[in-house]
Specification:
By secondary structure, the chain is an alpha+beta fold. It folds into two domains: 194 residues, Metalloenzyme, LuxS/M16 peptidase-like (Cytochrome Bc1 Complex, Chain A, domain 1), CATH 3.30.830; 162 residues, 2-Layer Sandwich (Cytochrome Bc1 Complex, Chain A, domain 1). It contains 16 helices and nine strands. The termini are far apart.
């Protein structure tokens, strides 16, 4: 734990060399955090999410096509692979022996080329995306979050794409779609483990160049969420406020304060309060599940929660919440791949090197006045509202 605390508080001290100059236009950005205690390395490679207009889901589709081969290659040296598609980037993380840095980097470099896929592989990948998209709309908690995001950030299309886009992708040339997405300067590489900056840069010196070309931009159509409200045995409702103008550290502390505040008052309900932060903006989102009989009082409690929290604030509460956020960050980042994910998440949002560590320090400096400023911003905004009523069972 001490090493992780130092990693966040003393960013430059743990890097193997002083921060490198800004990368040239045709190079990926590289961040290295050396942790020599274990002879392993976590390599996180991300490509900024920018599916071509009309081809939403392209990045995630290619992950489905690429992942089996990548897993097979990395497994040869005892490594493991994770692939995710966030709102910010298409992300691959491999963890393996530090001595195999060159081989792991070569394996990751292969994901920066258009995948070769046969008809069966393509149909299987498109079907998998269709199932993911359906699951997001069929389960109440995912539905509430997705519907809130769609209202706050309409440009943040589902990672699994849309019906119209997948129909196009099923017959599109992957080389042309990839050419519209890929540029070396849109790639970010984070390495955490028993490696040094020079070695990582050397391992990734031969990333493929941009190929040029692409596909003609088209329009995506997204089905309205109200058309397929899921069934639920409890009542679900969500509130979310666009908070893009808020200080991120203060918004994170406010999120924790509001979650604690509501859970103490709504002991018979399930309450989640979340800080959403992507390149599309920031939001504070609140998702509640409760019994049908408690829905009216739960709504009233939530509707007055920002005001009641504001009235109960003091410096001790804020200081304790900030300390809790920092503990959660340290606990989450306790492994090399988790630390790479924390550092890479900031890079994917367009933040400069060292932003994760500065954010960690900024959380400790949040004051009662900072939280009050966030609450005032939220109180002045119009929330997005989504509700899913409980299923009514027919009487026998």
């Amino acid at each position: 734990m001490l090493n992780l605390a130092v990693a966040f508080a003393l960013a430059a001290a743990l890097d193997t060399v002083p921060p490198p100059p800004a990368p040239r236009a045709a190079e990926p950005a590289v961040v290295v955090l050396r942790q020599p205690a274990l002879p392993i390395v976590a390599l996180r490679l991300s490509l900024l999410a920018d599916d071509p207009p009309g081809y939403a889901g392209a990045g995630h589709l290619m992950q489905h096509l690429i992942l089996p081969r990548l897993e097979e290659r990395v497994a040869r040296v005892g490594g493991r692979v994770q692939a995710v598609r966030t709102s910010d980037a298409v992300v691959y993380t491999v963890v393996g022996p530090a001595a195999e840095l060159g081989y792991l980097a070569e394996s990751l470099n292969a994901v920066l080329r258009p995948p070769a896929a046969g008809t069966v592989e393509m149909l299987s990948a498109v079907a998998a995306l269709g199932q993911e998209r359906g699951a997001e709309r069929e389960i109440a908690p995912q539905y509430v979050r997705a519907a809130l995001r769609a209202r706050l950030f309409p440009d943040d299309l589902p990672a699994a794409g849309t019906e119209s886009a997948l129909a196009r992708l099923n017959t599109a040339r992957m080389e042309a779609v990839w050419a519209a997405m890929y540029r070396p300067e849109r790639v970010s590489i984070v390495a955490v483990g028993d490696v040094e900056m020079e070695g990582v840069r050397r391992a990734f010196r031969d990333v493929p160049p941009a190929s040029g070309g692409g596909v003609a931009p088209l329009a995506d159509t997204v089905r309205a969420f109200a058309a397929d409200t899921p069934q639920a045995t409890r009542g679900w409702f969500g509130r979310a406020w666009n908070a893009s103008a808020a200080d991120p550290a203060a918004l994170t502390v406010t999120t924790r304060l509001l979650r604690t505040h509501l859970r103490r008052r709504m002991t018979r309900s399930a309450v989640d309060v979340e800080h959403w932060w992507t390149h599309h903006g920031q939001a504070l989102a609140l998702v509640v599940a409760t019994a049908d009989s408690l829905m009216p009082v739960a709504r009233r409690t939530v509707e007055g929660s920002l005001t009641s929290l504001r009235g109960s604030l003091d410096e001790t509460l804020v200081r304790d919440a900030a300390a809790g956020v920092r503990r959660e960050m340290l606990f989450f980042a306790r492994t090399p791949e988790r630390m790479a994910d924390v550092l890479g998440g900031f890079a994917d949002r367009g933040e400069e090197a060292g932003s994760a560590q500065r954010f960690y320090g900024a959380v400790a400096a949040v004051t009662e006045a900072d939280v009050r400023a966030v609450l005032d911003l939220l109180l002045a905004a119009e929330p997005a509202i989504v509700e899913v009523p409980p299923q009514r069972l027919p009487r026998q």
